[in-house]
Each structure stands twice: as C-alpha cells, then as structure tokens.
Amino acid sequence: METWIIILIVVVVFFGLIGLYFYSKKSKSNSKKKSNQEHLIEGELEQMNSYYNNNQNQNKNYIDTYSYDVKQDTQTNQKNKENYGRDNTKQQNIYQNNKSSNTVAIDIKPNNSQHNMHLKILQQTEEQKPQQIYQKIDHCYQQQNNQNAQLQNFKDDQEQNIQNEQLQQIFDYQQQNNQNVQQQNNQDNQLQHYQNAFQQHNQDNQQQNDLNVDQQQNQNTQQVIDEVERINVDISKILGNLQQIINETSKKRELAEEYKYYIRKYQGKSELKKNYGLTLKASVELYKYCNAFREVRGDGNCFYTAFGFQFLSILLFDYSLDQFNEFFNRIKQIELPMKIFVPLTDLKIDDKELEKQLLDEFQRRMLKLKLIEDINQRQEQFHTEFAAYEQQSDEIDGCLYGLSTLFFRNYSNYVIDFSDAKDAVFDREKLLNWEEECNSNEVVIAELAKQLNILVQLIFIQNSENIVVREYGNNKEHKIILLIKPGHYNIGYQIFKQS
C-alpha cells in the first residue's frame, strides 16, 4: 500500500473521532441542561399546588367559621325574643293581679309600638344575615375560581414553555444531527474516494502481476520445452532401456493386430454387455454406473494402463494449465524415481540420472499434448500416442505407454511408502516389477484416490449375473471407472445423453 494513502486514511479517521467526541460531549451537556430545567419546573409546580391547597383550606375554614357565627347570632336572637315574651307575660300577670286586688301599683303596660319595632329589627336582621352569608360564600367561590383559573393558566403557560423548549431542543438536535450526518457523509465519500483509488491501484497492480505471472509461466513452460528439447538429441539413448524392456516382453507375444494396441477403440452398451456376457438384469444394474468402455491390452500392466490413461486424461482435459504445472512441480519436488525391474531377467532401470531424464521426457510429452489448443486434435493425438505399440512417426514411437507405466508404478510405491496402510501391502515388491500385478491392489487404489483427490469406482464383474461396486475417494468431478474381471482391468465410462 502506498504511504500517502495510509497517511490520508489515518488523518480522516482521526478527524472523524474528534468530531464524534465533541458531538457526544454536547449531547451530554444538552441532556444535563434539560434535566435541570425539568427539576426547576417541577419545583415551581409543586409550590403552586401547595399554595392552591393552602388557599382552598383557608377558604373552607373561613366559610365554616362564618357559618358558625351566623348560627350563634340566630340562636342568641331567638333567646332574646323568648326572654322578651316571658317578661311581657309576667308584667301582664302582675297587672291583672293588682287590678283584681285593687292594689295600687305602677301601671306597667307593654309598649306595643316599641315591641313591634324591636321585632321588626330582629326580623330584618334575620332576613339580611342569610343574604350576607350567601354573598360572602359566593365571593369566596368566585375568589377560588379566579385562583384556580390563574393556577391553570400558569400551568398551561409552563407546559407550553416546556413543550416549546423541548421542540426547540429537538429541532436543535436534529439540526446538529443533520450537520453531523452531512459531515460523516462527506468523510465517508472522501474515504470511499480514497478506497476506490486504492482498489483501482490494487487492481492495476494485480493486473500487472497477473500479466507478469502469465509471462513468467509462459517463460517457464518454454524453458521446460527447450530444456527437454535439448535432451531430445539423445532421446534414443534415454529411451533405449525402456524400449529394450518392451521389446523383450510385450512385443515377443504373438497376437492378432487388433490386440497389440495398449488401448482399443471406444465401445458402447451392447458391446459392453456382450464382452462380459451379462444377463439383462445384470446389464441394467451395470448401466447405472457404466454404459461404455475401452479394452486394455491383457498384460501384467493392465491396471496401470487403465488407471494411468484415465488420470492423464484428467490432467490434459480437466485441469487448467496452472493445475497441470502445479502437479508436475510437486512430482519434481519429491524427486519421484522411475525405477523398474523385469523378473527373471537382468533388465532394469535403476540409475538416478537416467530416471530423472525419463521423468523429464514424460513431462515434456504431456506438456506438448497440453499445449495443443484444439481439444479434438489433442484427444486424437493423445489416444494415438498412448495406444501405439511400435514406431509410427517421429512423435509416435510407442513409448508413452511405457513411460506412463513407469510413472504410476513408482508413484504408487511412493504413496504406499508414506501411508498408514503400507503394512497391508504384503507383496509390495511387485509394485516395481514389470508386468506383475500386486495382490493388494485395492489398498493401492484407495491411497491413490486420496492423494490425487479423485473418485475411483471399482466395478467387479463376478459372473454374468452379479456385479459389485466399490468406491474410493469422494471428488466426483474427477472420476475414474475401472472394470475388473478376475485378472484383468478395462476402462469404464458413464455417458449421459443430452436432450
């Protein structure tokens, strides 16, 4: 990453953190101020409610006291009236007694006019007092209502003020938030701009690196071709021992021309059923796994021919060029031998320098096939080279089968050597014996499937009515089908018809 881009990203992040700090500090200050204002308003409301309750209690006490005083005055006037009536009756009795006894006495007569006036005054007083009481009560209620109205207006004003302050605070907060969002968006846009520039820079670098890698791969590929082409001058010497082994073994056998090829032509369902003499039921079961096949020459190398031909097909037609090169690079890293021994003879290949040259020649031939761009042409060339049992041209010399057999016999021995199941291969020496089959071949197949990351379907054709299928590995994208009838392997295919 460029230094100026890193510095610019650090500066943007720094100012973003400072803005976030001041924004959080201001939010805390606003919330604290709002909390203080709410406490003040609540205190004023509690004080007004207390004043209202005290005023209400005073009005009630005043009304109760005034009502009691009026009641006392009324009772006093009633008593005075009763006393005056009794006094008047007593004087009238005294006057009647004196009159009947002719006793000289003071003529006390009730003063009716004065009495009537007194009664009238009492009556007016009694009539006026309730009216005054009612007026006082109405005045108290009016005063109380006015105070209630003032208190309600004050509450409404305070609530309105609180709402206005809250709205103003919300508006200020939203405005501040919008400013912060705008600022954050500006920072994000600026950061995005830098990221886009950085990504574009990385893409340009990646494209340049890819171009360099492709050029390097092409150079490496060309170097491999050139290096092995230089060895091609002495190719007859390199392949001399292998050709001698082939000439002393498989070429000495008298066979019909069609059976001399190491792999034969592709055949379909009917030929498959006929070749193994299967019943209809057994053939239907077999077609679930295999519906075409290719016969392999019946020598002791038939397993390595059937397995090797199919895995080389994966290398040539399924693997990319990078995967192809990676596979052979691993082979070079482990320094895979190319040994072989022919039982009961002195024929062998057991020289490290020669084995290295044979491995290079095998890789050169496979790479040359891989670089054929036309797939159909590549397939035809591969099948022809692999099947050839003798020299047909400068390129087709009948040795690809032998090189493939050396490669997969030695690779099988290498895989077993590092396997936990190597003790199960009790006749391991046969892995490096030309035209000899290992009796523990299923252990070898299981380890090859694991190491090469492929799926191997092993189909046993026990008789015309019974087949048994066993699978090793789990990568269905790269599958090898082996048809085995006791003592011989053939190449199987599963062809799906396209609608």
From TrEMBL:
MF terms in GO: cysteine-type deubiquitinase activity; ubiquitin binding
Residue ranges of the TM segments: 6-24
GO cellular component, one term: nucleus
Any GO BP annotation: protein K48-linked deubiquitination
Keyword Transmembrane helix: yes
Regions annotated as coiled coil: 141-211
Designated name of the protein: OTU domain-containing protein
Organism the protein comes from: Paramecium octaurelia
